Structure to design on (368 residues):
């Protein structure tokens, strides 16, 4: 499903910035819709952003900061505004360290508990996680193979297999697109929550994420508690798993459940897992004793995938879209369809879950 860029992309010059008009976002939305943006800016250096700000590029236009497009659903095939995409690259270990070396093996020889790894926002998330595993740095191994860019990871506080990215973020470096100010958010200032952070709020969409400092353990404990990680390791006779054993296990578990990015259009989990209060939970548990549930500080989390599955939607197909046969939380686009088909399917599923269980399920994907 990987797309070609449109051939009629005209290039204008604004100093050394590359500006493209009527730009195809086909390979920048993993749902795989043929979306075109009125304006598109690829940011290759901080100077690029400063120039755009000086030229008031963001003042009058609807602006969207787009990472890898793996958690976004365009509701229309034309985006009548400006898309800004980070292509900032680079990974530095212990950036504030005075010594010349950034070799993790040398840095680790002084036996530190943690290393700080600074990663630029345009790096690909899964490559960055592989880098940390190759260098025996602990913390992100349960988040392997999540599609998208590093810059997008704090926005919705990506999470999988019992770990959330907030657990490893030290701080987030941003630029305020309205005035060019450099603003640093420490972990606690990001107000991370389940698939949420301050960067998701409308008033904070002006912050362009430049880089993130991750605090990664040099000798860590592996988190094997979630779901079937232990089963997988047992089945494969792995008694004392290493960092890379766990990463490999999760890669395999993910591949069994989720559609392959670039082959079938999807955004991973389409809905958030709803959190219901104790009364609703008890009523449902009586009716469905087998229902999985995870208590947390705000109530009880029920897997939306289970609700959708139980409501009979798994494997459902309608024209170019459907519900993934191995994980009902994932809506898929088989190609050739339009965003409205997914939006219609979303609505039908929401209505049916509401009718059957009395629970409202909300999209996890950002709909723009
Ligand atoms: N379930 C079903 N039928 C289904 C899907 C799930 O019965 O079709 C049941 C499972 O058997 C299990 C429970 O629901 O008992 C939970 O399922 P799973 O472990 O697959 O996790 P999830 O809650 O559906 C969440 C994240 C995923 C993440 C997995 C693993 C959300 C919205 N989704 O899914 O994240 O990979 O846990 O940690 O929190 C993503 O955000 O794109 C994503 C894939």
């Amino acid at each position: 499903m990987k797309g070609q860029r449109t051939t009629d992309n005209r290039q204008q010059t604004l100093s050394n910035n590359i500006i493209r008009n009527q730009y195809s976002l086909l390979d920048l939305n993993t749902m795989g819709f043929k979306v075109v943006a009125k304006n598109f800016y690829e940011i290759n250096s901080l100077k690029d952003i400063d120039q755009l700000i000086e030229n008031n590029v963001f003042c009058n236009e609807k602006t969207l900061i787009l990472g890898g497009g793996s958690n976004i659903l365009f509701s229309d095939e034309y985006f009548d505004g400006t898309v800004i995409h980070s292509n900032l690259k680079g990974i530095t270990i212990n950036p504030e360290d005075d010594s010349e070396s950034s070799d993790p093996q040398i840095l680790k020889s002084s036996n530190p508990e943690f290393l700080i790894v600074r990663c630029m926002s345009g790096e690909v998330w899964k490559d960055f996680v592989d880098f940390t595993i190759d260098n025996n740095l602990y913390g992100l191994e349960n988040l392997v193979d999540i599609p998208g860019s590093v810059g997008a990871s704090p926005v919705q506080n990506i999470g999988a297999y019992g770990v959330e990215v907030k657990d490893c973020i030290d701080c987030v470096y941003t630029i305020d697109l309205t005035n060019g100010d450099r603003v640093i958010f420490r972990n606690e200032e990001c107000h991370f929550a389940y698939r949420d952070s301050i960067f998701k709020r409308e008033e904070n969409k002006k912050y362009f994420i430049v880089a993130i400092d991750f605090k990664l353990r040099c000798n860590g404990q592996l988190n094997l508690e979630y779901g079937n990680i232990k089963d997988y390791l047992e089945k494969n006779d792995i008694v004392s798993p290493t960092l890379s054993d766990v990463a490999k296990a999760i890669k395999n578990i993910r591949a069994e459940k989720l559609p392959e990015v670039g082959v079938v259009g999807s955004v991973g989990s389409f809905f958030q897992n709803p959190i219901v209060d104790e009364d609703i939970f008890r009523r449902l548990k009586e009716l469905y004793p087998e229902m999985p549930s995870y208590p947390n500080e705000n109530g009880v989390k029920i897997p939306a995938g289970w609700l959708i599955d139980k409501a009979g939607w798994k494997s459902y197909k309608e024209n170019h879209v459907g519900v993934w046969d191995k994980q009902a939380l994932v809506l898929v686009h088989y190609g050739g369809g339009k965003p409205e088909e997914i939006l219609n399917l979303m609505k039908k599923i929401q209505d049916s879950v509401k009718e059957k269980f009395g629970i409202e399920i909300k999209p996890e994907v950002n709909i723009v």
